[in-house]
Amino acid sequence: MQTKSKLFFISKRNVDLFVKFILLFAALFTVAAIIIIIYTLVSESLSFFSHVSLNEFIFGTKWAALFDDRSFGTIPLLIGTLLTTSIALSLAIPLGIGSAAFLSEYASRDIRKIVKPIIEILAGIPTVVYGYFALYFITPNLRYFIPDLYAYNALSAGIAMGIMIVPTITTLTEDAFYLVPNSLKSAGYALGARKSIVILKIVIPYSISTIFATIILAMGRAIGETMIVTIAAGLKPTLTINPFESIMTMTAAIAQAATGDAPHGTLEYTSLFAVATYLFVIVALLNLISNYIRSKWEIKHD
Description:
By secondary structure, this protein is an all-alpha fold. It has helices at residues 2-49, 54-59, 75-106, 109-124, 127-142, 154-178, 182-190, 195-206, 208-223, 227-233, 250-261, 267-297; strands at residues 63-64, 71-72. It has a two-stranded antiparallel ribbon. Helix 4 packs across helix 6 (154-178) and helix 6 (154-178) runs antiparallel to helix 9 (208-223). It starts with a helix and ends in a 5-residue tail after the last helix.
């Protein structure tokens, strides 16, 4: 009997060690993948910056990577990226937080079972579908109100991106709302506050760190979106903040250079890695800011 117990203990310990090494391998594989990606981006970018100055790349106001008169200023790409992202966030933030408040505070269990899966389906729709949805549905309908709207424009792309990131904001914000102690909400109701006041004065302030971190996470998702802006916003690197015009984003510039028009090893080819590195740095900074806000503003529980 003792021998069987000892063998069972040894077998169980071996299983635990095996699971431990599998999980360790998964973690190390993720780290290795990030290191390889960074190495690839930086090595190709160094080749690009040996021909183009960093000052011209960061502060240049003209992008013409695939023309004879080449220019690699990323200001138009950055402005286009921020324009579509700001449009997306202006739509997604109120819709996402409002949906989260409805699901967590107003909706019954049966309604929540119906509404929440429908919202989450939006996250599973391929982004190429969103792109054509923006091009063939949003833009034609917007033209009833904005006759001068370009066929390819930042507004339609931003709206489609906003719809795409609504589930991200809704799901994470709803989870944060559920963590608000019932004692705090009950105290608000005991003082005679309406449910809307409890949400505005108690639920949202209590969850503000997670809400801000979620918004920054959604912002990073919008900045890195490729297919929607490539299809619906156009490929015209115009230095403009007019959402009715055609623009080019950083991801669209990468997609254009990666289609085969830029032969391997050329300056045009390495420019896509330089833009990708720039984009990677922006998204990494946003993630660091998100983590910092969550760690500093989060309400600590004893």
